[in-house]
Amino acid sequence: MEKKVLLEVNNLKKYFFLSKKETLKAVDGVTFKVFKGETFGIVGESGCGKSTAGRTIMGLYDQTDGDVVFDGKNVHSLNKKEKFTLHQKIQMIFQDPYASLNPRSTVREIISEPMEVHGILPNKQERLERVYQLLEDVGLNRDHANRYPHEFSGGQRQRIGIARALALNPEFIIADEPISALDVSVQAQVVNLLKKLQREKGLTYLFIAHDLSMVKQISDRIGVMYLGNLVELTSSNQLYTNPLHPYTKALLSAIPIPDPDVEDQRERIILEGDLPSPINPPSGCVFRTRCPAAMDVCAEIKPEWQEIDKDHFVACHLYKKD
Ligand SMILES: Nc1ncnc2c1ncn2[C@@H]1O[C@H](COP(=O)(O)OP(=O)(O)OP(=O)(O)O)[C@@H](O)[C@H]1O
Ligand SMILES: [Mg+2]
Asked: Is ligand 1 within 6 A of the CB of residue 16?
């Protein structure tokens, strides 16, 4: 069956112009597609541009270059009314559910608010019923409706954030590190909830995380980001069994394997140095300053984003498409 493309991101760039001289290249030309009903993971270390990419895709930031096409429509050329409609279809879940929930509002008010703004279910009683339903959908109950965010645990707060994101019946959810702030024991519960909601509601997710082991549990395909660039993209399985980019290999080698024999024999790749600044990124390949396989050409020419095998993309001079 032909998969339907829901989101298309083409050579997207988002620069922050800090001063006349300084430009911070937070996202510097990323290209990928997200198919309807899948979970597309974006992984990369802190500061590599994941959240900025998410916000630019949502249209919260204007893009510097490139474009974002959601369901056939160019996100950055919509008029006000079209943007408003788009924001019913795309919702975001954030890392810190506490910071993103108004502490002075009750759960009912928090979950109702998007419906009020968008004029959905103007009848108060119907709206309240919908709030109750949403609370149940995310594993809470109607008694929680009149409480305040501080009365909940981190995992429960994230459930409230998810209920709010679902209030407008979105098609697409950008989840920006939705479980990073939670206890490990709670993370799996929230991941399972997101999976359940995906099945029930046919949702499509863009799931952002800095931890590859976390992303793998939920993603069908994964894009690996480094300093504003995508370096590799393929199915979750392929990425684990046949990683190509040296950065992906390094990220994978940092994940412990439960089997001690395998763990002992594993080659561990420790990356030297810190993430360079996106203000003056390295010439050529941005990863070359930390790459164990760097060659002369890597400083001179930016590696092309190429589909090296079917559905396996990589930007690295080690690989040439035949
Ligand atoms: N509004 C802004 N103005 C200027 N620079 C910004 C802005 N937002 C982000 N940046 C910079 O852009 C780069 C990418 O930031 P971003 O928050 O997108 O990274 P991230 O991958 O989400 O990191 P984290 O894992 O820490 O959330 C960073 O260098 C950051 O300092
Ligand atoms: Mg972020």
From this structure: yes
